[in-house]
Amino acid sequence: MVVVNPKNWHWVEKNTLGWSKTYFQDKFIPLRYDHDDYNIEVIELDQISGDSNVSQRKGKVICYFDLKLQFKGQVTSKDNIAEPQNFTVTIPEFMHDDDQFLIQLDTSSLQPDSKNVVSNEFKKYFLNSLLKYQVDLIETHSAEIQE
Question: Would you kindly state one Gene Ontology biological process term found in this protein's UniProt entry (predicted)?
């Protein structure tokens, strides 16, 4: 969809929440982290709510989003002795102008060793994957809102 907007002067906005749901489903299910002793993966997008938009004014493309995200994850021992263990990842405020947001892990059902790996190593890996969203959002939608 191309919007008629001479010299890209007027404010144009596109709601991208639907695209965001698909993005997180496609990019994060599964999101796998390979550890020496465990396979850790995101297995489900449990919740996404809030706002996500790409806008353009005076020729400049910007995005703004404020999302609540919740994922279900699973830890499987590489020796396949134990049953898979589940955990939850919640980001209560994933925002466009912040890269130091809270990532809440509910690891109460994990064994101590796997809990440590999820809380330290997987969390960093997850954060790095999450930070790609803003770049992908702008790259995907900027051409559609400019003349």
Answer: protein folding
